Amino acid sequence: MLVNQIRSFSTTTQLGSLARWYQKLWRSKGPTNGPPYAHVTQVGDPVLRQKAQLVPPEAVTSPEVRFLVQTMIDVMRKYSCVGLAAPQIGISLRILVMEFKDKLRDEYTSAEYKIKEMDKLPLTVLINPELKVTNYKKKSFTEACASVKGFSAEVPRYSEVLLSGLDENGKSKELTLKGWNARIAQHEMDHLDGVIYTDVMDR
User: Fold this and answer.
1) What's phi and psi for 96, nearest 5 deg?
2) Is 188 assigned a catalytic role?
3) Pairwise pLDDT comparison (32 vs 131), residue with the higher score
4) pLDDT above 70 for 164
5) Mean pLDDT of 149-176
6) Of 5, 36, 6, 42, which Cα lies nearest the Cα of 23?
């Protein structure tokens, strides 16, 4: 019981610290009961249509951003997502997390896994990410989003991209992503620009 109380107090303190920090950066002063949320924001929330702000260089390794990143990871895993952008928990900052676990292979047929070029992607955190297309060939596959529950659509995506940015420790990171992992990256980068997959789906 005491351990749970301490953990609850610690989380509440961190949440308040992040809220005040975020509010000071981007919002007018005053109390807030808002983000970061422990759930995924849904279409209709204005934050999903905003172009997310860059994280200031001096804040990249701050306790507030570390707490935000951990919250994103927790929510991503809680809802069995393979990627999540900060706006999806109500914070309009350019941060994304991705993870495609090897155990997900069991959820697809071997043929589907192969044709969609799926592959394991270790937990990846990128702050202020940038994406460069390295293969302009597009492929369309069914795509869904935790922010648009209950729907899916065919979405064309580039076959290969170069994703770069800063990790949670402020170190430069660069990844070449192909196939399904390239799709995940493009999907999350869209969120940082206020774009939802329904905007770019096949019509």
Assistant:
1) -140, 155
2) yes
3) 131
4) yes
5) 97
6) 36
What is this structure's pTM?
Answer: 0.84
Nearest CA to 188 out of 122, 114, 137, 127 is that of 127
Distance between start and end Cα atoms, the chain: 54
Residue 122 · residue 140 · CB < 8 Å: no
Helix axes of 2-26 and 63-78: crossing angle, nearest 10 degrees: 110
Looking at residue 31, what is its pLDDT?
43
Tokens 């979405």 belong to 155
Of 64, 143, 168, 188, the active-site residue reads 188
Residue keyed to tokens 């995924």:
40
**Amino acid in the structure at residue 183:** R
What share of the chain in percent tops pLDDT 70?
84
Sign of CA dihedral 87, 49, 142, 124: negative
